[in-house]
Specification:
Elements lengths: L4 H6 L3 H9 L1 H16 L5 H14 L3 H13 L4 H9 L1 H5 L1 H23 L1
Helix pairs in contact: 2-3, 4-5, 4-6, 5-8, 6-8
């Protein structure tokens, strides 16, 4: 989990926000687990988010790919680094999975680029 609570809240899927309201104790426990895992080792936030992006791609989890692209950008990763993570999926996951992940990544990078041009 990122250290910026306000920033995190902006990127939460509506479904998770609804779950958080319905089951706040469970949501807090889940968030605390994420924080403990993030703090359990030497990886910096940028590296953690790139790793989590890779896992989301491997799991073919569209929402998680979107989330971790946003979080990786917030942690200082460049679009080129994010696209490199996608390219690394080819030999392990195959071209179709990489192509699917590429479109999900570009969904977010395209929006991020539009916001930066304003």
């Amino acid at each position: 989990m990122s250290s910026s609570k306000a920033s995190d809240d902006l990127n939460l899927p509506r479904t998770y926000e609804e779950f958080r309201r319905a089951k706040p104790a469970v949501a807090r426990a889940y968030e605390n687990l994420g924080k403990a895992c993030a703090e359990a080792g030497p990886l910096d936030a940028r590296t953690r988010e790139l790793m989590k992006l890779a896992m989301a791609i491997g799991g073919r989890l569209e929402g998680a790919v979107h989330s971790h692209v946003r979080r990786a950008l917030e942690a200082g990763a460049t679009p080129e680094e994010i696209r490199h993570v996608v390219a690394l999926a080819v030999p392990t996951m195959g071209f179709p999975t990489m192509a699917m992940a590429f479109t999900w990544v570009e969904d977010v990078l395209g929006k991020a680029g539009k916001h930066k041009r304003r």
